[in-house]
Amino acid sequence: WAFDLMDTASGGRARGWKAPALIDLRLTRHQRLQSGLDSYWHVDLIRIFGSNPSRDAGDIQVLDNLAAHHAWRLYRAFWQVGDARQHWALRLGWQGYDELFGLVPDAVDLLNSSFGQMPTSSQVGMPIWPQTAPGISARWHPDAFYVMAGLWSGVPRDPGIPQGLNLPRRGDGSLQALELGLDRHGRYKLALGAWALHRAGVAQQAHRGVYALADIVLLGAGSARHLGGFVQWGQTQPYQSAIGRYVGAGVRWTTRRHGRVSLGMARALLSPSFRLQHPGSARAETAYELTWRKRIDAQLALQPDVQYIVHPALAPRAGHALEIGLRVDSSF
């Protein structure tokens, strides 16, 4: 489970504490098949509750990645098979695009949603946390080079199905995704990716995007104390999205004794259509975040967090928002 306390200390639309929370029940089973392949079954049932800090801050990038509609959901239910010797894996079932594509290892501790999944893709109807869709994904990774591809049937984020299964329906369309790159675990990751989201029978609503990312160990590669840095870039059609372009960057300092300290900047360039609908909006919204994740023991971690949102896009007449918070998460 995870629980956040976030306070809009200044600026934004309103003051006060917000407390999004998550309960996650997981079941995983691993088998070694007679053919020598590794087989995994994985199921996630999640319960989301609490309040959304972005309602007070007025930001469009979603400053807390736990915030979502209250619901019980079957988040993931998939079967994965692969061969480590042949360097491939195949996954079938309910899964999220954001579990595999566009991942930045040194950004995982930052709470702002843009660091986990760029807003040029996350805000257009992708099958991402917390509502996924049935699909198939594959990865081939000989040595450092890798290529991933995915196909999803059904489009999530439908207000008509606020909880439970996201079953495919006529007219849902599909999502196709491709990513290729170089990944030396513990040293660097470089990737390029593209995606296309289609609505069945409505060609003009096809939505496409591209992205690039780099994550590199800057100091202390291979040691317990090291400094990593990352950059992100994403772009999609501005006439179909609130955010047409995104740039993110950050660093993470890791030590065995003191935990991990992360600093990040996420800048979302607003589309002309969004600015037309929200008079007075600035050209871009920028979020700065500083967070420190400290593991207390094997089951409990604490994470103080500070964010400063410059020109919150959904509150153009409000001041820059200062957010102060704490995440508590535990596993058993």
From TrEMBL:
Q: What is this protein called?
A: Carbohydrate-selective porin OprB
Give start-end of the signal peptide.
none
Q: State a single Gene Ontology molecular function.
A: porin activity
* GO biological processes: carbohydrate transport
Gene3D superfamilies (UniProt xref): Carbohydrate-selective porin OprB
* Organism name: mine drainage metagenome
GO CC entries: membrane
